[in-house]
Amino acid sequence: MCKGKNKKSVLIAFILILLIQNICYAEEITILQCKSISKFNKDYSYMENSWRDGKDPILRDKVFTKLNTINPIIKSITPRDKYSEEQVIEFKGTVIHRTGSIIMIKWANDFNNKVWIATINLNYRKAVVAESYDGITSFGINVETLTCK
Q1: What is the pLDDT of residues 39-52, one digit of tens each?
Q2: pTM, rounded to two decimals
Q3: Most exposed residue of 41, 82, 91, 96, measured as fewest CB within 10 angstroms of its CB?
Q4: Is 9 a member of any domain?
Q5: What is the CATH number of the domain that holds 96?
């Protein structure tokens, strides 16, 4: 009678070990290419002394690499238009929060007048990027939604 129970216990333990190995060795997401879907912006005009809708309708795609590190790389891609070529700017980010499915990354420009925070949902491959800025004539926020692959 005890031998039958031991066999079942060993079988259950073996199955649990296999499941744990699959979870631990599951493919880790290190790169995401994200297409900007929409953008909302508001800024406060110093000259008008009031809030207004922002003037930045350009949707910027993002590529996030080294997502498994504390300092991912972010490429912000401004699409080509009739006045200029495509522009790619690269930033070094810092992970400020990480759970099983969410990564939050912060980065800034060289002048420290713009700060971005990206919240990426790895399960759904979606991202939200909030950019806060302080300019010469105004300060405000841009929020983009992105779909990733």
Answers
A1: 999 999 999 999 99
A2: 0.79
A3: 82
A4: no
A5: 2.40.128
